[in-house]
Amino acid sequence: GGAIRSFRSLSGVQPTMTVDEQVECEQAVLRSPLFHDALRRHAGDVDPSLVMVDIWSAGNYGADEESTLRLARPLCFLRRDATDNGYARPLEGIRPVVDLNRMEVIRVEEHGNWPVPEASGNYAANRVEDQRNNIKPIEISQPQGPSFTVVGRHVSWQKWSFVVGFNAREGLTLHHIRYRDGERDRPVIYRASLTEMVVPYGDPGPTQARKNAFDVGEYGMGMCANSLKLGCDCLGHIHYFDADLCTSRGEPLKIQNAICMHEEDFGILWKHTDRRLPDSPEVRRSRRLVISSVSTVKNYEYGFFWYLYQDGNIQLEVKLTGILSLGSYPAGQKPAHGMLVAPNLYAPNHQHFFNVRLDFDLDGMANTVQQIDVVADPVSPDNPFGNAFRARSTPLTSEKMARAHLSLETGRTWKVINPSVKNHVGEPVGYRFLPGDNALPFASADAWWRKRARFVDYHVWVTPFQESENYAAGDYPNQSIGGDGLIQWTEQDRPIENTDVVFWYTFGHTHLPRPEDYPVMPTAYIGFLLKPAGFFNINPANDVPPSPAKAVGRDCCELAMVIPPPHELGIG
Ligand code: CU
After folding, report:
1. Whose CB among 50, 292, 330, 529 lies 3.0–4.6 Å from 305's, allowing a Cys bridge?
2. How large is the average pLDDT for residues 232-256?
3. Is residue 117 reached through a cis peptide bond, with omega within 30 degrees of 0 on the bond before it?
4. How far is the centre of ligand 1, averaged over its atoms, from the C-alpha of 320 (Å)?
5. What is the 3-state secondary structure (H, E, C) of 152-209?
6. What is the rounded CA–CA span in Å between residue 298 and residue 482?
7. Per-residue pLDDT averaged across 311-339, rounded?
8. 3-state class of 535 per DSSP?
């Protein structure tokens, strides 16, 4: 409408760092005489144009400047040449401190003398010799095109429909996820998003102790998104969506092909062999729809892959790859808080915590979350063999009660139900939340970063929908003193039963680096799965037809043996 709809002036907080600040911060360091002097002291007479400067957030450790200035504490690296992997050669002892509003280095902190690792650590195709040469092509062809249709940002795929969103902070978001079930177009999730991340490092040394990146609230996962134009790793028929963002100065910033969508074959969907029937087995191929985006946050890459399946499953898989955050280390010493990945090259232990917000709308807004624990029955006259166990379901009624950790002892899962919509056996319709790999934070609860990331205190949180509650560490985690976000909201202990609930899940990946993670890290995976549990009356993928027959004349089951029934064999 050409009008400003709202404008609020805020004080005492720092917004997310922007993509133009990343570039300008590097330039500010590279033109600083203070930095040139320090560089000479630490690396000798080297060409400053080979230095790479990565903006790193300053955090808040109680110093005045952290509450009054907009700061960055970049990490610096020294390339051998313009296309060298500079991360292999950290300038460990130098830590410039940059005022991002003045875009000026205010001082350079120096922490002793550290070797600059000698060896190169390259991974680019034009720098790796002896590449394997026995890989034949795999082609995925979809001669009739994909099975999805796209209108603007609205996608329909088989029985699923949803809207694709994207913003500078969260990156990829999914909205209005629905499943067509007969005559009913059934809502499942209203909005799904990554709300925060933090990567705390576990080394107490002066050059490493302040490293804890809030990749969403400090750097902007969407802001750091890749343009997938030059070759997304997706095979098949790809549909791309662009992202429309802006710079810190309000200039438009378009990331072309920021989101990739395609279909993937995913092995067997279901199968059964009835050995009494000649045309058995029945087998169906599983196909999933992949909606993905990849962000480069300095050295690290994060891929966010949402999958929709034909059986009603919804999955998020985060792919962690890229380059370790490396430091240098004196020869002949063994680091206590990490691993040498190459001579003089050190990778500190760290964790990656993600928080995802799932605003459920199962068949309507009024939903309840249940915590499901599997418990064994005591041995008794009713359970004489001691084999009995049951699922104990606890409806979560208030926010504090809902705060919980995973529990291997009880195989804990969660179930979101709509108490007023029943399935054909009279149970409320539901979706089960199945956690994947996870971790607890190893840093002390008093660690500075943890005050700002209280969302790591529990794996699961449930809140009643509030339009203003979107980010697990609060709206402005950059340089915050903490205490904001989930921990603050849920202190109200609001009722969460039979209302518009939001389910928040925190999941952590503990990364003890290996030499095999260097020079570039093979992808690590972490995520969760949502599975219909009484949402449908039967397997919703029962109606998937067999795949077309292949060249051999029959479908893929032709090698199955038909065994005569027992009476024909003279047994049974
Ligand atoms: Cu890692």
Report:
1. 292
2. 88
3. no
4. 7
5. CCEEEECCEEEEEEEECCCEEEEEEEEEEECCEEEEEEEEEEEEEEEEEECCCCCCCC
6. 24
7. 96
8. coil
180, 186 contact by CB (below 8 A): yes
Torsion angle (degrees, nearest 10) of CA 56, 209, 221, 355: -160
Angle at 167 between CA 162 and CA 169, to 5 degrees: 130
Residue type at 40 in one-letter notation: R
pLDDT of residue 203: 97
Cβ atoms 462, 396 nearer than 8 A: yes
Span from the CA of 527 to the centroid of ligand 1 (angstroms): 15
- The per-residue DSSP string of 333-362 comes to ---SSEEEEETTEEEE-EEEEEEEEEEE-T
Count of residues making up the chain: 572
pLDDT at 567: 60
Tokens read off for 510:
């503990």
Q: What pLDDT score does 548 carry?
A: 80
326-335 long-range contacts (CB < 8 A, ≥24 apart) are 326/87, 326/88, 326/90, 326/299, 326/518, 327/90, 327/92, 327/114, 327/203, 327/207, 327/208, 328/89, 328/90, 328/92, 328/114, 328/115, 328/116, 328/117, 329/114, 329/115, 330/114, 330/115, 331/115, 335/203
Over the stretch 34-62, which tens digit does the pLDDT of each residue have?
Answer: 999 999 999 999 999 999 999 999 999 99
Rounded distance from Cα 520 to ligand 1 centre (Å): 11
**Amino acid in position 523:** T
- E-strand ranges in 436-493 read 460-464
Report whether 148 contacts 261 (CB < 8 A): yes
Q: What's the 332 CA to ligand 1 centre distance in angstroms?
A: 25
Q: Of 179, 190, 219, 300, which residue is the catalytic one?
A: 300
For residue 404, is pLDDT > 50? yes
* 36 Cα: distance to centroid of ligand 1 (angstroms): 31
Which two three-digit tokens encode residue 425?
A: 């056996």
Gap from CA of 340 to ligand 1 centroid (Å): 14
Q: Please, are residues 33 and 55 in contact by the beta-carbon 8 Å criterion?
A: no
The residue whose two tokens read 């576990």 is 202
Q: How far is the CA of 348 from the centre of ligand 1 (A)?
A: 9
- Distance in angstroms (rounded) separating the CA atoms of residues 418 and 421: 6
Any catalytic annotation for residue 219? no
Tens digit of pLDDT for each residue in 118-165? 999 999 999 999 999 999 988 888 999 999 999 999 999 999 999 999
CA separation for the pair 520, 523 (Å, rounded) = 9
Active-site option among 215, 359, 484, 517: 215
Q: Is 240 considered catalytic here?
A: no
253-286, pLDDT tens digit by residue? Answer: 999 999 999 999 999 999 999 999 988 899 999 9
Q: How far is the CA of 381 from the centre of ligand 1 (A)?
A: 52
User: What element of type H or E holds 428?
Assistant: strand 428-435
- Radius of gyration (Cα) for the chain, nearest Å? 27
